[in-house]
Amino acid sequence: MNAVNYDRWIWIELIGFDNRESDYGVSAYLKNAAFIPDGISLLLFTPDFVHAHKGMEKEHTLPIEICSYAARPYGKHHNRQEWTNYQLRGLVEELQKHRIDVYCSFFNLFHFQDNGQDKTSEWCSKHPELYEMRKTGEAFPVINPLKRMKDGSYYEDLFVADLVTVMRDYNFDGYHGADGYTSPRLTIAEADYSDDMVEQFTRFSGVELAESLKLICDGEPLEMEKRGDWIWTHKRMEWINFCANRWGELWQKIMPALRKEGKKAVLNSVWTRDPFEALHRYGVDYKLLAASGVDAFVIESVAASMSAGAGEIEYEPGTEFKAMIMTIKAHVPDMKLICLNAIQDTNEQWDAISHAPTLLERDIYSFSNLFMKDQQGVHRCTSGFVACLGDGISVSGWEWIMNRWNLGYEGQPERIIGTSFVWADEALYPSLERYPATRNWPAFKYLMAFIDRGAPLHTMVNVKDLQHTSGAICVTDLHLLPDQALQQVLAYRNGSSTLVGHMTERIAQAFAGIGMNVKAAPDELFCMAREANGTVIHTIVQTKESNAMDNECEDLTHVVDPGSWVDPLYFSPVPDDFLNGCVQAMINCSDAPLMIRNEQYIRTTTLEINAGKWRILIQNLHLNYKSAHLDVGRPVAKVSVLTDFPGIPVFPDGSNFKLYVPGRGMVVVEVDF
Fold first, then answer.
1. Beta-carbon neighbour count of residue 65 at 10 Å?
2. Which contacts qualify for 485-488: CB closer than 8 Å, 24 or more apart?
3. Residue 24: left if φ>0, alpha if ψ -120 to 50, beta else—which one?
4. CB of 273 within 8 A of CB of 184?
5. Over the stretch 421-445, which tens digit does the pLDDT of each residue have?
């Protein structure tokens, strides 16, 4: 089998294998898939897998909720089977014979149904003191791994000890930290405001509660809500920092214990959230997770399922997830990112490969072709895919998936055509601190809005690496950059630059120091485009008067933050004409293909394979087929279609060519000049 240049993982339940076979169905499964994955994560659903583990001295039957996701009774190939601890250990051994790394994974969930009856896992149901607690005093029945047991001991210490025992007894290669063990399920605006967590918070932060608030009030909903509201309103940054520190501490306990056993670990990202919203909504700092020494992040990039309406949610996150991946990579550049590829989930009742294949195809090509620039050159933000979930996929289904994964990661471009988005960690934390009072946009929000409007932004570069890069750049939140980073941006001469920020006295002085004059009043939003030689060629200013007219909410500090990540945070409005002007400036400063028709629906990503060849990913945002008519700026000798569709040749006309793109799908072509 030919070597591939990316990671291929599968997340799968025990129901995907067959304990009636001598090798537990491993050979049949791998023959069906026709490839050997680098890693398989066994989804064992509940924390009872580690806490109710009975050891390996005797063979015993595992609880039904461990044998399939939430005890679902059947899959596409066979019914749920009763598995024993010995059979599970045998399955791990059989997979490892094929040089597959085997990981265990589970959520912080423990509620399931058996024959229509609501049931709970035994160990978790006996520990209500560990449940997440809303600020209203209502328990949310999932495990909060940051809490303490009834005897005052920290749950995380028990968890680490039990996890190590399970890892050793089953000889897993690693632990896959899944939802609930890398971030809370409820937002930190809503939870966990129990006495336990508030006491931990006051001790960590040194914050003294207002005299009208009680430190001990579990069981008093009105007092709990008043206390939670006060913390979120008046001590928000302290609360965020506390939560981030606790999640970092959890993983900084997990990783040394696993390393001592010779084990590895990967962990899920935070509910599809970028670095800003991971902190503000869930109190998780990716840098602290990375500092634990974890081997990779599994990025929650399940756009296809969301776009198709899984859970009846009306949400189109394709652009948002691209921006999320790019900003996470820029924030933790040394961390391997593996994308969760939303193929199917029988328990959650969605099936993208059967019902929305164009969306799945779009995700594969989009997420594999996002890039970082650094001193070593251009490289991809992501390192591969995790098939989610991997049971019941047919031979033809696996072939379809593999063909697209292979094409997505094929080759190494010399250059990405378009504009590089400049990332600065130094601006992230100030934007977080200022957000409640201003609701101003962080870098992620601008990046998402610009991509959504057609800006050729597919590459990130850290502000520290500007001197080693070339080509057009875009910098937002200019006013939040420290002096050294600001000077690096203003001194950039290796390409054009589009600069966005709020006018301050410091910015005005910096501009005046290099002979630039932007007529913007204090705190007004501006966009300035400069040529490579520093000449200002375009300026847009969003005046205070228009801002005041557009601002929908005067009391920004009391805006109610949404409880779900699928509902957007409130941001102060930025008019479309300002954003469109910024995007047009970037388009004018780049040599990306121009859309001649259906420009409101067609988006492109262009990779320069070499001086005479471009690879262009062409996306259609519309539900229906749309024609993409592109002008690539110089005469074309040949257009080669690399995807199955369209199934007819495409002939260039000078610098132009056109083809159809399926609804909400993507076509990939190569252009020879």
1. 27
2. 485/424, 485/426, 485/427, 486/510, 488/463, 488/464
3. left
4. no
5. 999 999 999 999 999 999 999 999 9
Whether residue 370 contacts residue 409, with contact meaning beta carbons closer than 8 Å, is answered with no
- 671 and 632 Cβ atoms separated by less than 8 Å: yes
Helix axes 425-438, 443-452, angle to 10 degrees: 90
Conformation bin of residue 131: beta by default, left when phi > 0, alpha when psi is -120 to 50: beta
Give 92-109 pLDDT, tens digit per residue. Answer: 999 999 999 999 999 999
Closest CA to 333 of 389, 383, 381: 381
Residue 354's CB is within 10 A of a number of other CB atoms, namely 12
pLDDT band for 3, please (50, 70, 90 cuts): confident
Residues 125-130: contacts with CB under 8 Å, at least 24 apart: 129/196, 130/155
| Bridge-based pairing state of the strands 415-417 and 525-530 | unpaired
Q: Are 44 and 104 in contact (CB under 8 A)?
A: yes
- In 3D space, the residue among 217, 299, 293 whose CA is nearest the CA of residue 256 turns out to be 293
Look at the alpha carbons of 140, 246, 332, 163 in this order and tell me if their dihedral is positive or negative.
negative
- Whether the pLDDT of residue 546 is over 70: the answer is no
Prediction pTM value: 0.97
Cβ neighbourhood burial of 335 (10 Å; 0-12, 13-18, 19+): middle
Instruction: Dump pLDDT digits (tens) for 265-307.
Output: 999 999 999 999 999 999 999 999 999 999 999 999 999 999 9
Spatial contact of 361 and 665, defined as CB atoms under 8 Å apart: yes
DSSP codes joined into one string, 327-348: HHHHHSTTSEEEEEEE-EETTT
How far apart, in whole angstroms, are the C-alpha atoms of residue 555 and residue 545?
Answer: 17
pLDDT at residue 558 in the model:
83
Q: How far apart are the C-alpha atoms of 11 and 28, rounded to whole Å?
A: 17
Q: How far apart are CA 63 and CA 53, in angstroms?
A: 10
**Paired tokens of 114:** 């058996």
- The single-letter DSSP state of residue 324 is H
One-character DSSP codes across 226-291: HHHHHHHHHSHHHHHHHHHHHHHHHHHHHHHHHHHTT-EEEEE-STT--HHHHHHHH---HHHHHH
